[in-house]
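note to self: dont lose this again. the chain is below, predicted strucutre after it. 122 aa total, dont forget to put it in the shared folder this time
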Amino acid sequence: MDLVDLLWECHQNKRIRQAETTAAIGKERVEATRADFGRLCKQLARQSLVCQALWELISERLGVTEEELAAKIEEIDLRDGVADGKIGPQQLRCPQCGRPSNSSRRTCLYCGADLDVPHAFG
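---
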């Protein structure tokens, strides 16, 4: 084996080790993501259960109808101007400096003042 072949083999072995390391890191990330996904699925199932229980209590005790609930869901969905099945950020004005912001922020980007967010789940 001449020097060029030896250098090439060393280079290739280094690349193989780097690829193995990258693959191992990728595998760890996949496992962490899988665990996060499992936790999120459990949280979503629990939140769905709580929402159903709350809806049944409201419906039974206050007489709110499915139609009223559907109308309120549509109203909230459209507050950001897009019917996409989720609460989107809304345009706000900082009460202190008057600059524009959105409801995804809790404080003004410019002056740091607390912003009045329009809903509890923003």
